[in-house]
# Entry
Amino acid sequence: MPEGQALQPERRPVAFRGGGFLPRTSRAVGAIGFAVVLLAWQGALAAGWISPVFLPSPVEVALALRDLAASGELWRHLSISLYRIVLGWSFGTAAGLGVGSAMALFSLARSLGMPMISALFPIPKIALLPLLILWLGIGETSKVATIGLGVFFPTAIATYSGIDNVSRTLIRMAQSFGIPFGAIVCKVALPGALPSILSGMRISASIALLLVVSAEMIGAESGIGAFVLSAGNLMQTDQLVAGVAVLSVLGLLVGAALSAAEKALLSWR
# Structure
């Protein structure tokens, strides 16, 4: 090295480390997981580890589903359950969004709403079904009200928490520019709370599925819950598991729809 020339440090490229958490979902891995479960199920029955009287094989369940679909019985029960879910979830979500937003934005609503929600949320909503039947009758109204109550509380809490956690700096900045209150709510608070609201909707959708099955088992003659209960009473285990499989597929479809909504509405993230 020539005299007087400074020693230059070795330059090495540094990997970019600021990409954040970017987990990805692989449909192939999910499909392989389901296939492994089905193969293990079929293998356990073939080996005699499980009695087919108590748990039918996947092939028997598939045949039962085919027969139920061909007879129209499956679609009759499924359409009734979907009708109850859609009505109850819609009413509960609308009420939860309204009450949760009010609690996050207004002191009086927060003072009244938080103690009420804290007191009523832990009550199992299906335990209120006999009382709702007494008040509203044995028809659809009591079942829809049960689902609506179950959906209302997680939606209200998620909405309240989401809006309340929006950065105060953003809100103060909007206020400093003289933006009206309504515009701040619609353009700052609600978009910032949207991830929390959608998470609450995902939870409430699962609760709606649980409650519709429970309500139909207690006070209905039709619907997937009533069908599963009837098949269990008659020891028709292939039809019972077929009904449970329909509920599982319905849950997957609801989850996929909410994931698509999150991807579309939260693309800014």
Observations:
- DSSP finds ten helices and no strands in the chain.
